[in-house]
Amino acid sequence: MLRSAVSGRSVAGQVFLLQVVIVLLLVVSAVVAQVLQVRHDSDLEATNRSLAVAETFANAPGTAAALRSPDPTAVLQPRAEATRKATGVDFVVVMNTDGVRYTHPRTDRIGRRFVGTIAPALAGGTVTEHITGTIGPLVQVVVPVRDRAGKVAGLVSAGITTAHVGGAADQQLPLLLAAAAAALALATAGTALVSRRLLRQTRGLGPYEMTRMYEHHDAVLHAVREGVLIVGGDGRLLLANDEAHRLLDLPEDAERRHVLELGLDDETAGLLASGRIATDEVHLVKDRLLAVNQRPTDLRGGPAGSVTTLRDSTELRAVSGRAEVARERLNMLYDAGVGIGTSLDVTRTAEELAQLAVPRFADFATVDLFDAVLSGEEPRPGTALRRAACAGIRKDAPLYPAGDRIRFVPTSPQARSLVTGQSLVEPRLRTSPGWRAQDLERSDQVLAYGIHSLIAVPLRAGSLVLGVATFWRSEKPQPFDTEELALAEELVARAAVSIDNARRYTREHSMAVTLQRSLLPRTLPEQGALDIAYRYLPAQAGVGGDWFDVLPLSGARVALVVGDVVGHGLHAAATMGRLRTAVHNFSSLDLPPDELLALLDELVGRIDQDETPATGAAVVTGATCLYAIYDPVSRRCSMARAGHPPPALARPDGSVEFLDLPAGPPLGLGGLPFETAELELPEDSRLVLYTDGLVEDRERDIDEGLGLLRDALLRTPGASPEDTCRTVLDRLPARPSDDVALIVARTRVLGGDRVAQWQVPSEPAAVSEVRASVTRELSGWGLEDLAFTTELILSELVTNAIRYGRGPIGVRLLRDRTLICEVSDRSTTSPHLRYAGSTDEGGRGLFLVAQLAERWGTRYTPQGKVIWAEQPLP
Q: Which of 189-193, 318-322, 357-361, 619-623 has the lowest mean pLDDT?
């Protein structure tokens, strides 16, 4: 490679030889310049030194006086020699005004005339001369010596040969030559490296080959069908091939001009001037779509600027545009499949269709459904529609808003689409009289808003037409075409299936909710033992089997019950109704809570046996229940639960606790007994009964839910039951995942001033004493009007207890919402109402009691039984 470089046949070789010659010339020039500079410096130094010595000696004290002495040589010669030796000059000569020497290094020259020019010095000037004397080339200076009067009394000349001054420079010349040789060697080595790199880059090509390659590259550059531009760092166009001239319509003198002065559009010119990186950016230049790629040239140390390529992609853009439209439509259909019908809600599904279409397909979209569809029923053609959804790129469009009831005129596209079941396109609404006939004023507003084209597509699900979807266009100037009509039909077809499914679900859900609502209590019965508030929240989807009830019992007592049937749907609601009815019936027997739950457990077991999977009906997979009885006279509350969460008790002092009741098994399992717990409740205590949907869901466990319930009760000490319900439910979502039943009951007390009781001996004579005591008590209560009937009722009941029961016998009067009469004894024999014959002596007592009392009955206690009767207060 080195031989190839030295040979000179290649470009690298020629460059190498040329660089070596240039370096050699530079070295020679440097040596010559240095020699000349040394000579100049020597002359200058000799002149300066001679002048300094001559002026110093001429102005030295005693020089002028010595010239006037009888023998100037004797005085001045020693001084001149001392000065010459001290300063290094070759001679110091003192002469008179005639040029006769008084001093000289060679004494034989004293007394002779000075060789040189002295006239300017006699006139008071200084003379500098370069001469060649007996000692060689020298520089001599002549200066005047002035006396005290300022007249020239003599002359002093000092001189030095240049050889003595330039000796140091001569000594440096070999070093200079050596440095030049070293510089030549280094430059040659560097040139060799550069030439080697150039040789590698040019691949050993000679000038002819390089010229031919350049010509080929230039031909290719101007022949390719892609524009190429090279722009310098200052924004000036350095090169543009023929294709770039054609695509950008550049002027002939475009090169060397700034890109902002070439008449290009602002966007394209700004890109070329910025030099930023661009990849396949599309720019509209006149009627061409150009794909522009641009890269800077200084990424790897190159010169500042950028290289830009241009490609005409007008036709390719049109083809790719159609492909992009097709891909976008496929994506829209896919999104419709996964984004429409996410919920079983008719209105929500219609909104999903409208939101999907805007702005990807239309600028505005509306969905109108028959009212019957919104309520879950089958559509009734010919009736009015209701706008279920409306979406658009802006909110101020003059279209009918969502919720409006609309009746389309027969000539409108929507009405024709509903009648024929076919989709319709109105490409130009301004020239469509049938559409404008719907509402002339609103139609003018729509046209003025810029909406100019629509597509009306019926929502068909099988043979049912559920409504119509309308797509409106305003931003894009082109009207809807047949391809867009096909896409609209596909979108609406998918949405129609989801809307029909939501309609069917709505119908089934409405039926289940209706059944459930009919089975739940609509109003609470009147009673005076508890102040009660309740809430029931249905689940997000379906209906459940949660229920609650408030049951007035005898003796002013009240029973509270909450229950939950596992599962959702009609079967759970129906089972809940059966259990609620059973609790009503069992409570009329005045059974303790544990016995009532035992009967309920047996009933659930029979239901499971009757409804086997072979019949196609679902069995009861689980049910829970909590039953509580509160007595306002004794303030005692007895409770039992079957697999149900424990109740919460908020006491009047603000403390909250969850009552530790024995946990019985869920209903239907059988085999295990239930236990009743009894406790005394202070007045104004709040007893909170609930189902598990209040304290447990998918996002939190039951312990966290119980903690939240406790916090809600602690924050509302002394609050009313209604306020307590509101505070507790504020912590729940609007639509919980499971049904929620909640009862808050604040206890009241039936005070001693409203209760009267006596012990009655088992003697017939005691009946009259009872009547007298009752009359006095009723007078004190202001109930004299009830004295006769009350005496009669108590006479019959006490007489029966004395005759058929066992003592001790007790009588109690309670003044509550009604007047309650109670007679207790230790016998468990229950009296029966019968019709006595005309010849029977007895059997008419209970008949009279039943006729005089509003209600009567028997309840059993651990000590016996109680027969009671109620009379309405006047």
A: 318-322
Residues 596 and 635 in one domain: yes
DSSP 255: T
Query: Nearest Cα to 727, choosing from 656, 661, 660, 624?
Result: 656
CA dist., res. 399 & res. 362, Å (int): 14
Kindly state the tokens that stand for 240: 């543009």
Q: What is the pLDDT of residues 440-473, one digit of tens each?
A: 899 999 999 999 999 999 999 988 999 999 999 9
pLDDT at 11: 59
Q: Are 870 and 822 in contact (CB under 8 A)?
A: no
Total number of domains constituting the chain: 5
- Pairing of β 663-664 and β 636-642: parallel
The secondary element (H helix, E strand) that includes residue 470 is strand 464-473
pLDDT greater than 80 at residue 358: yes
Which CATH number is 420's domain given?
3.30.450.40
For residues 301 and 446, membership in a common domain is answered with no
Among candidates 389, 401, 331, which has minimal Cα distance to 355? 389
53 neighbors 158 (Cβ within 8 angstroms): yes
* 42/139 same-domain check: yes
Strand, coil or helix: what is 533?
strand
Q: What tens digit of pLDDT does each residue of 697-754 get?
A: 777 778 888 888 898 898 888 889 999 998 888 876 656 677 888 999 999 999 888 9
Segment 534-563, tens digit of pLDDT: 988 877 666 677 889 999 998 889 999 999
CA terminus-to-terminus distance, the chain: 134
Separation of alpha carbons 352 and 559, rounded Å: 48
Q: Is the pLDDT of residue 206 over 70?
A: no
Q: 519: left (phi > 0), else alpha (psi -120 to 50), else beta?
A: alpha
Sort 656 into a burial class: Cβ within 10 Å, 0-12 / 13-18 / 19+: middle
> What is the token pair recorded at 678?
């009894």
Q: 632 or 325: whose pLDDT is higher?
A: 632
Residue 411 shares a structural domain with residue 528: no
Residue 553 and residue 465 share a domain: no
Question: What's the rounded Cα separation, in Å, for the pair 348 and 799?
Answer: 71
Q: Can you give the pLDDT at residue 732? A: 67
The beta-carbon contacts of 841-849 under 8 Å, at least 24 apart in sequence, are: 845/796, 845/797, 845/799, 845/800, 846/796, 846/800, 848/792, 848/793, 848/796, 849/793, 849/796, 849/797
Q: By three-state DSSP, how is residue 840 classified?
A: coil
pLDDT band with cut points at 50, 70 and 90 for residue 196: low
Q: Which of 465, 487, 510 is a domain's end point? A: 510
456/371 same-domain check: yes
Residues 556 and 412 in one domain: no
Q: Helices 721-729 & 702-714, crossing angle to 10 degrees?
A: 140
pLDDT for 838 equals: 47
Q: How many residues does the chain have?
A: 874
Where among 125, 144, 161 does a domain terminate? 161
Question: What domain range is 234 assigned to?
Answer: 224-313
Query: Residue type at 81?
Result: E
Q: For the domain that residue 706 is a member of, what is the CATH number?
A: 3.60.40.10
Per the structure block, which two tokens stand in for 674? Answer: 């239930």
pTM: 0.54
SS3 assignment, position 707: helix
Clarify whether residues 544 and 638 are in a common domain: yes
